[in-house]
Design a protein that fits this description.
Elements: E1 2-6, H1 26-40, H2 43-56, E2 60-64, H3 73-84, E3 93-96, H4 105-109, H5 112-116, E4 136-140, E5 144-148, H6 166-177, H7 179-182, E6 185-189, H8 211-220, E7 225-228, E8 235-240, E9 247-252, E10 269-276, E11 279-289, E12 294-302, H9 304-308
């Protein structure tokens, strides 16, 4: 299987908005959009990424959150149009929310993300889904299981923290031990990173609050690959399994929609994970170059020791 990974699309669409919609955290977020973020993230770049993923021939696409900027209904409608345009439909796409998709309490209360992307959140093992709809599990191919977690929560202004609910985490532990999942190559999707982000001075107000607990569950469950977003920065980490031999690899591509950047690490990217015979054999990363108006091969990591085994 070739698994494509895009994230942090930050699709901006302000329509049918009233002034009182900004009498909350959106006042600061909207100002940030006008000053900086609004021009950096472009739908046209997302479309280039999706077209390139089709050319590469990925079997499945995982989207790890922050499809919107301010969790406005109009933004969810625009994001849904982008996702629905992916060839293969809901069987080829797994998607989870990020903190921007839970930007305000009303977005959480109205379950805007879950209502908008309901078709993509259906689980092949619904017995483990909590009332929130998470965790879900997509069984793909003969030997891959993709598990979706939700770390999005509404927060105070200037905060972008996340948390996986306790009941969802307990259910995830049981799901990973299920015989239908246990012997597959296990991929877990989560928006927030599982470790501290060294490139941010404000990591405390952006962190996954219960990261240690989540990481423990994934390592005990012998998860092979955890993919996330949030930092807009390429990264890979490795942790040994706690439930047996093997390695958990934690990967982020970056913000796929980023059109303009000063450092390549923060540029628009997507990852492609090559999974063969129950092992991760290669990660290839593609970077958007504005002068070429295209995604180009940026770097790759080949796990030769796994291939030889």
């Amino acid at each position: 299987m070739k698994l494509g990974h895009i994230s942090d699309l930050h699709i901006l669409e302000i329509a049918d908005v009233r002034p009182w919609h900004f009498l909350n955290k959106r006042l600061i977020g909207g100002t940030n959009l006008l000053v900086k973020r609004g021009k950096r993230h472009q739908v046209a770049v997302i479309e280039k990424a999706l077209s390139r993923l089709d050319e590469i021939g990925v079997d499945h696409i995982a989207i790890t959150g922050d499809l919107t900027n301010l969790a406005l209904p109009s933004e969810f409608e625009a994001a849904r149009r982008v996702v629905d345009a992916i060839s293969g439909g809901s069987d080829r796409v797994s998607i989870i929310p990020g903190n921007h998709d839970y930007y305000t309490a009303d977005a959480e209360r109205e379950r805007r993300f879950e209502t908008t992307f309901d078709a993509y959140l259906q689980s092949d093992l619904p017995a483990y889904q909590q009332p929130s709809g998470y965790p879900f599990c997509h069984l793909r191919g003969d030997d891959v299981a993709i598990v979706g977690l939700n770390s999005g929560i509404p927060t105070l202004p200037l905060y972008a923290t996340g948390r996986v609910r306790d009941d969802e985490l307990v259910a995830t532990e049981a799901l990973l031990a299920d015989p239908k999942v246990r012997d597959r190559f296990k991929v877990v999707m989560i928006h927030h990173p599982l470790t501290q982000f060294e490139h941010s001075k404000f990591d405390y107000i952006r962190r996954l609050i219960n990261a240690k607990e989540v990481l423990r569950v994934l390592r005990h469950g012998n998860v092979d690959l955890a993919i996330h977003g949030h930092n807009h920065h390429f990264a890979t980490l490795e942790f040994p399994h706690l439930g047996g031999p093997g390695t958990l690899r934690v990967c982020e591509a970056g913000s796929t929609s980023t059109a303009h950047y000063s450092r390549e690490e923060f540029g628009g990217k997507f990852n492609v994970y090559h999974i063969e015979d129950g092992a991760l054999t290669k990660i290839e990363t593609h970077l958007f170059e504005a002068h070429a108006n295209a995604f180009v091969h940026w770097r790759e990591h080949v796990f030769e020791e796994r291939i030889e085994a």
